[in-house]
Design goal:
- With 324 residues, the protein is of the alpha/beta class.
- The chain folds into 2 domains: 1-138 and 281-324, Isopropylmalate Dehydrogenase (3-Layer(aba) Sandwich), CATH 3.40.718.10; 143-280, Isopropylmalate Dehydrogenase.
- Helix content is 40%, strand content 14%.
- It has helices spanning 8-17, 32-42, 57-61, 86-101, 115-120, 128-136, 162-168, 171-187, 214-228, 245-248, 259-270, 305-322, and strands spanning 28-30, 48-50, 65-69, 108-109, 143-147, 152-155, 195-199, 232-237, 253-256, 275-279, 285-288.
- Strand 10 (275-279) and strand 11 (285-288) form a beta hairpin.
- Helix 8 (171-187) packs across helix 9 (214-228).
């Protein structure tokens, strides 16, 4: 469901309307009445089918959008979140993960959430990724990848102030992110021999220490450890010259040191088709690479491209895990 005041319902219905474009069958964990009212308001003909059993999804999908009822009706209006909906939003995530873990769903694709509303309701996780890790019962930290047609990027530190990201960066964190990325490239993306480009932290990767020693003292030892373990990690590379077309042909994923170093290039190259992928979970999870878009919620103008890409990528990853 995602944040009911955002564009999640709209882009999901738009994705269903484009189902003939090779979109794999999916069902929503949402309130059918909310979606029906939204479709009516927008003038869209989207028949809905409330599922008694999610096994009915494939048979239903061609004629109607399948919905697994979330067990309540959100109070939010488009663009106006209501904190009382937080438990329902979290409950929809719980249901989706439970279905994936039980084999009732092949993957989990999440719509954007409004973390502020969840925080006010007592949600104590930085975002989807950390909450999904808790539900999965894994001890290691999952890794966030943004994947698009032109580029895959992985930030080692994510939602931190830049000063805190620099202070937090460690050799161990770089090694962990690279190992999880390497395994995922093989298992989920069918890359037989992955090459990982590792960005430097400082301009020009530190200019041999003249612009900071982090590249020498933190990043280079991580790369050496990865290479000793058989991972083809290259760098540290000057971040200002590793994202042009010729450079991107030389690697399968770019490991970046902080949020914007990773997200600026991929959103510049693949803004409408980039997908947020959580690596290191026992189930497949993807998400559109955009937010709730409160400013256009309810207008019907939100583009479903990133959600469609997330659905297609999730299906492809799940098929590879099944060996199909």
């Amino acid at each position: 469901m995602g944040e009911p005041a955002g564009v999640g319902g709209e882009i999901a219905m738009k994705a269903w309307l484009r189902r003939a474009e090779g979109i794999p069958p999916f069902y929503l964990v949402d309130d059918p009445r909310r979606l029906a009212a939204l479709a009516l308001c927008l003038g869209w003909r989207v028949p809905l089918a409330a599922l008694a059993d999610v096994a009915q999804t494939t048979a239903t999908f061609a004629q109607a959008l399948p919905v697994r009822p979330v067990g309540g009706s959100p109070r939010a209006a488009p663009g106006r979140p209501d904190p009382s909906d937080a438990r329902m939003v979290i409950g929809s995530i719980d249901t989706a993960v439970a279905d994936a873990q039980a084999g009732r769903a092949a993957a989990v694709v999440t719509n954007p959430i409004n973390k502020d509303a969840l925080y006010r309701a007592g949600f104590r996780h930085p975002g989807h990724t950390e909450y999904l890790a808790e539900l999965a019962g894994i001890r290691h930290s999952p890794v966030m990848m943004l994947a698009g047609p032109s580029l895959r990027v992985v930030p080692v530190t994510i939602h931190l102030a830049l000063r805190e990201a620099v202070e937090t960066l460690s050799t161990a964190a770089i090694v962990h992110a690279a190992r999880v990325t390497h395994s995922a490239l093989i298992r989920d993306f069918a890359v037989a021999a992955p090459v990982i480009a590792v960005a430097g932290l400082n301009p020009h990767a530190g200019e041999a220490g003249a612009l900071g020693r982090e590249d020498i003292d933190i990043i280079a030892p991580a790369i050496a450890e990865l290479r000793r373990g058989g991972i083809d990690a290259r760098g540290p590379l000057a971040a200002d010259s590793m994202f042009h077309a010729a450079a991107r042909r030389g690697y399968d994923a770019a490991l970046c040191m902080y949020h914007d170093q990773a997200l600026i290039p991929i959103k510049t190259l693949d803004f409408d088709a980039a997908v947020n992928v959580t690596l290191g979970l026992p189930f497949v999870r993807t998400s559109p690479d955009h937010g709730t878009a409160f400013d256009i919620a309810g207008s019907g103008s939100a583009r479903p491209d990133s959600l469609i890409a997330a659905l297609k990528l999730a299906a492809a990853m799940a098929a590879r895990r099944r060996g199909v």
